């Protein structure tokens, strides 16, 4: 079964599940209630969004120089930079570092880049215990599921679901409160920080002018993951670069407001390398893996390049009517929602994932809420256009549009087909429309025919 059919099957199940819809609407409703409070900190919100977009434009247009500056500045403090062209190279480098450090246990903070390369599976295959330390990610790991959402991985689970899961996996009381469940997870994870030889984090931004890694979080697990173990590995997409540390004054509040509705997240950290001789804390070795994995393919495309401005706030997911009905797992990809539908076909292949660009109502709500004003709905249309241009449209779709074009270029042909014939062609021959919608019913006469009759021409 191909990816399109899997997507359609999963989507049909979730769209018809009222309990799933209730949980998602409840959680997104809480998000919608607090976001306006976060936005109130900006005197000119639209100007802030426009400035952020311009900074990201500048960063991506000068990506080669910015990355080289980052490497130079980071290396000055003893950090090591590794360039990974694809997921396998990134995995090989991490596994090799773990082998050199005789790593048996690895702690990992929330990172979509590690999900993208399927790091946990690779470490498990190599006999290394990888522990997710973000509470949402830890819940998903216990349940054997991928993250459901870019920012809130377990958004689709209620507190009762989590209590039941902990009871099954950890033997706890199935009636624990959220506070008690959090304490259970904390007690387990604190021991893992001490045992781990290696810590892995992602990065919200990498800063070229100081050679720094910027991480923003609410739980403090990323700080623990990069300070307790002797070796710290960062895996980050090359598009996360920003030119200056001063840019964080804009990007951190934007990310927190559009991501969770906060004015600023609880913990904000800049790491510029391993522990220095005059410092008492931090890892003795630090690596940054700069992940390409298809991103340069997007950079080559002048239109799609804009999608790399994304700061992973997740706002477009929360606004998307399709995502809210079918959920994150239906997409079958690391990145779901509108931004996932834009970048996945370009990262993993248009032939296998072109269907995601059609998983949209094109209402434009994703563009309206984007923190950096990416024209997401236009990029979805561009993906559809590229799929057709590359000959990836289905046979019946191509025939249907050729027939439509032929008829609309010849008025006599269009008038020749009466309403009954049009109804039969659309509803009985080309059945894609009526699979999930009511039948179309054309009038017996076209507007052109009615006009001619009225004016006796």
How many discrete domains?
Answer: 3
Order the strands across the largest sheet as they lie in space: 1-10-7-4-2-3
- Name of the CATH homologous superfamily of the largest domain: NagB/RpiA/CoA transferase-like
Give the terminus-to-terminus CA distance: 56 Å
Number of helices: 24
Q: What is the third-level CATH name, the topology of the largest domain?
A: Rossmann fold
Shape: globular
Q: Segments where pLDDT lies below 50 for 5+ residues? A: none
Structure in a nutshell:
The chain has 457 residues and is an alpha/beta fold. It has helices at residues 3-15, 18-39, 45-61, 63-75, 87-100, 112-116, 119-125, 135-142, 159-170, 178-195, 221-227, 248-260, 295-300, 315-319, 321-326, 337-348, 350-353, 365-369, 376-389, 395-408, 411-416, 419-429, 432-436, 447-455, and strands spanning 80-84, 105-108, 129-132, 198-201, 205-207, 212-217, 231-237, 241-242, 267-271, 285-291.
Keywords summarizing the entry:
alpha/beta, Rossmann fold, six-stranded parallel sheet, four-stranded mixed sheet, 24 helices
């Amino acid at each position: 079964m191909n990816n399109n059919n899997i997507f359609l099957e999963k989507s049909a199940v979730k769209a018809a599940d009222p309990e799933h819809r209730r949980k998602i609407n409840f959680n997104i409703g809480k998000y919608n209630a607090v976001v306006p409070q976060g936005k109130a900190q900006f005197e000119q919100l639209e100007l802030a969004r426009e400035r952020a977009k311009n900074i990201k434009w500048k960063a991506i247009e000068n990506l080669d120089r910015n990355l080289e500056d980052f490497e130079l500045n980071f290396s000055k403090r003893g950090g090591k930079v590794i360039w990974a062209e694809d997921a396998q190279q990134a995995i090989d480098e991490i596994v090799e570092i773990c082998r050199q450090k005789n790593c048996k246990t690895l702690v990992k903070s929330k990172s979509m880049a590690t999900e993208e390369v399927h790091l946990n599976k690779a470490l498990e295959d190599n006999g290394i215990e990888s522990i997710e330390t973000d509470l949402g990610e830890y819940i998903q790991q216990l349940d054997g599921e991928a993250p459901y959402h870019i920012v809130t991985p377990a958004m689709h689970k209620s507190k009762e679901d989590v209590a039941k899961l902990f009871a099954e996996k950890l033997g706890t009381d199935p009636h624990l409160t959220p506070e008690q469940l959090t304490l259970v997870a904390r007690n387990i994870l604190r021991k893992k920080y001490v045992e781990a030889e290696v810590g892995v984090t992602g990065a919200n931004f990498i800063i070229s002018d100081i050679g720094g890694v910027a991480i923003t979080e609410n739980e403090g697990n990323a700080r623990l993951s990069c300070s307790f173990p002797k070796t710290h590995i960062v895996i980050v997409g090359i598009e996360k670069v920003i030119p200056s540390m001063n840019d964080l004054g804009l990007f951190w509040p934007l990310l927190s407001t559009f991501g969770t509705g906060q004015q600023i997240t609880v913990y904000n950290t800049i790491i510029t390398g391993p522990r220095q001789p005059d410092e008492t804390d931090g890892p003795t070795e630090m690596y940054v893996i700069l992940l390409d994995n298809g991103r340069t393919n997007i950079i080559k495309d002048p239109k799609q390049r804009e999608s790399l401005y994304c700061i992973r706030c997740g706002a477009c997911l929360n606004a998307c009517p399709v995502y809210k009905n079918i959920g994150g797992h239906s997409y079958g990809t690391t990145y779901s929602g509108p931004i996932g539908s834009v970048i996945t076909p370009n990262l993993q292949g248009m032939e296998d994932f072109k269907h995601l660009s059609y998983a949209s109502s094109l209402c434009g709500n994703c563009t309206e809420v984007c923190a950096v004003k990416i024209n997401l709905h236009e990029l979805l249309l561009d993906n559809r256009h590229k799929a057709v241009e590359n000959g990836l449209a289905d046979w019946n779709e191509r025939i249907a549009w050729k027939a439509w074009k032929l008829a609309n270029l010849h008025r006599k042909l269009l008038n020749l087909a009466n309403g009954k014939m049009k109804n039969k062609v659309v509803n009985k021959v080309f059945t894609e429309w009526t699979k999930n919608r009511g039948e179309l019913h054309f009038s017996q006469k076209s507007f052109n025919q009615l006009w001619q009759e009225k004016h006796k021409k």
